[in-house]
Amino acid sequence: MAVNQYIEQNKDKFLNELLDLLRIPSVSADPKFKKDVFAAANFVKESLEKAGADVVEVCETPGYPIVYGEKIIDPSLPAVLVYGHYDVQPADPYELWDSPPFEPVIKNTKIHPEGAIFARGSADDKGQFYMHIKAFEAMMAENDLPCNVKFMIEGEEEVGSDNLEKFVVDHKEKLAADVILISDTHMISMENPSITVGLRGMAYMEVEVVGANRDLHSGTYGGAVANPINVLCQMIASMLDENNHVTIPGFYDKVQELTEDQRKRLNEAPFDLEEYKSKLNIQDVHGEKGYSTIERVGIRPTLDVNGIWGGYIGEGAKTVLPSKANAKISMRLVPDQNWQEIAKIFEEYFISVAPKSVKVKVKAHHGGAPAVVSDSSVGYRAAEAAMEETFGKRPIPTREGGSIPIVALFQKELGTDPILFGFGLDTDALHSPNEHYGVKNYFIGIETIAAFFRKFRELNDQ
Predict the structure, then answer these.
(1) How do residues 27-65 score in pLDDT, each as one tens digit?
(2) Are 137 and 51 spatial neighbours (Cβ–Cβ below 8 Å)?
(3) DSSP states of 263-290 as a string?
(4) What are phi and psi of 422, to 5 degrees?
(5) Which of 43, 143, 266, 299 lies 20 to 30 angstroms, CA to CA, from 8?
(6) Residue 104 CB coordination number (10 Å)
(7) What's the pLDDT tens digit per position in 81-95?
(8) Sign of CA dihedral 167, 362, 238, 252
(9) HEC string of 315-370?
């Protein structure tokens, strides 16, 4: 087809444009990258304009802007809304990268023999949302855009999307669409394509434990005054029992339990436990007793320490009882858990288990709701047909352990189930050093998105 021919003829251009976007260190969590985050927003704006959008706006928020673009070819035709984010995770620790995180390089790997793009944001989410802009460009260039299209690309996803809900609520008419596409998830493999139909939510907390009013000599005071690091470790340990079951009272009260038949179908997805362990270089898996690895990351809630610090960590030795210790803790949630409720009971529990020898502070950073989407909607069937066309195999519906708060927000405010149309792999090292995205994944994603527009129009015309 003409659209696929255009994609083939413009592969070098499409790839080089993505590499330019990846060179922008748009880290939303670190204020020192503020100018770069705005630069990334402007890059997205210019890309949409060049691709053929009639309207492109950089919409200001109290934080980083939301880039909105649209092409309305006929108001009577179905509309597709594309969501993505141009901000990225911090690249720290830089020393663990094999190449600089914002100097993208393409290297062949065992999983990606055609090459993978190594750079922060390559898979999450620059490489994935940019596929949609390039698919749009190809359809416009060949005068073959079957549906109206709208884009909403934000710059705060990695810090909780604090300003997104107000934007969506205030612009419901502008954002109205018949289907929403989000490419911010992964597939089982290139041989076994899949579409995500469930995501976990999250409650992200920060805690502080304070002991004495200053650091103390561990010989003079050790054994007589509480060590905040020791106490913090004990408090964290108390939150999981020997079966890795979260002990916070009320934590599981609203957890949606799947039927045995649903669990059986979930576990029918291709999964090689030995290969999984080998890729991670671990001897065994770990998690809640009574559940498979697929279930643990898809349908069960968790509690994990994401960072912990305190005391002396410099070169050599310093015998000190630190004055305070801190930790960042995230809880992945499943339907029908409410992240605000979970944050509240976490705080109550953490305070309740603290000994009188320390003072504690608890802060809720951000959170998001879990979501389950339909696998029988017109949008899902169009995505299924598009993937079957480009991959030669019908995709498998799966549940993923990550969180995308926008999914539940769209369901609530726009009344539409998003299609979680991701093309990454679980080996792409998201949020880690050496993040990468397959070159083949990038281009087959562009082709599949273009096919989706055609299939979606066909199904709507029936």
Answers:
(1) 999 999 999 999 999 999 999 999 999 999 999 999 999
(2) yes
(3) HHHHTTS---HHHHHHHHT-SS----TT
(4) -90, 150
(5) 43
(6) 24
(7) 999 999 999 999 999
(8) negative
(9) CCCCCEECCEEEEEEEEEECCCCCHHHHHHHHHHHHHHCCCCCCEEEEEEEEEECC
